[in-house]
Amino acid sequence: MLRVCPKCGIPKPVDDYYANVKKCKVCCITATRAYYKNNMAACRKAGKARYQRNKEKQKKAALDRYYLLKAIDPLLILGQTSEQQSRRRRLRQVVDARREAQKRNAPLNDFTAAQWLEVQEAQEHRCYYCGKRSKGHLTQDHLTPLSQGGSHTLHNVIACCRSCNSRKGTHPPLIPVQPLLLTISKSRMPECGP
How many CA atoms lie within 13 A of 34 on its CB side? Predict the structure, then answer.
């Protein structure tokens, strides 16, 4: 289905428009950049004011992430070797993905770090779509995207490389997918708090 952008007059697919915005994404981005360029001082001042208003909220969010990581693996908080640091980065991706699912009001949000490692091992650390081996660099791809009401759970997540994940976006999977039916790692949400 095509829509005509009132700004540039070019017919484009509906996916090239933001929700509830009449202009296409390209026109919106161009207008935003032009506005920032013409009002740079005011934009910077507003950004600093926004930072000051939300400083405590950001500190609280950082502490919440700290306690969540500590609940997942207490050894991550102590002194770390390079192997531990890379492990922490991988777990951080899982925590960030869980937080993103929570922000998008996913109906089910119980995907754990242990399950993510299990999914990668089941796929032999290869991208599901292109088959490229990317140990430690795979991303979580939701078969039914979170933005379309998908859940953040074991049966809706597969591992794929960044380029395939961004190419898929919010569209259906690039190839037919049989969801993983793994049950070794229990699904549980760790307790957070001081």
Answer: 6
Q: What pLDDT digit, counting tens, does each position of 72-86 carry?
A: 666 656 656 667 777
Structural domain includes residue 178: no
Top pLDDT among 85 and 50 is at 50
Domain housing 34: 2-50
Tokens 């809706």, residue located: 156
Are 11 and 77 in a shared domain? no
Q: Which of 117, 187, 185 is nearest to 152 (CA)?
A: 187
| Total tally of structural domains belonging to the chain | 2
d(CA 109, CA 58): 22
> What's the Cα-to-Cα distance from 12 to each of 8, 104, 105, rounded to whole Å?
10, 27, 30
Residues 84 and 163 in one domain: yes
- Alpha helices in the chain, H assignment, sequence order: 25-38, 40-53, 55-72, 82-103, 113-122, 162-168
CA distance 181 to 143: 14
Predicted TM-score (pTM) of this structure: 0.51
Please, is 128 exposed, middle or buried when counting C-beta atoms within 10 Å of its C-beta (0-12, 13-18, 19+)?
A: buried
CA distances, 136 to each of 12, 58, 93 (Å): 37, 28, 11
